[in-house]
Design a protein that fits this description.
Layout lengths: L8 H15 L5 H17 L9 H5 L12 H13 L1
Amino acid sequence: MVLKLEFQNNLEQKFREVAMKKYGYMRGSLRKASEEAVTEWIMKNSTKVPIVENPFKLVNGILANLKGKKNSIDLQHEAGRLWTK
């Protein structure tokens, strides 16, 4: 699978530098470092994310008061804000 990420220049340079020092200056170093970073992030944050079988039931009715007042994009953004709370 391919996942493209965009970083600020200074963060990207530091990441590349540390990845190359740890895994060597060869093909695959960035992939290994990326997998390690993502795995650690998941381990750190997975306990904070509640398990939800049907997330639509959580926001069902919450956005009803906005029906007709906002377009679909605005409703998506509002649902995202509510979800992160």
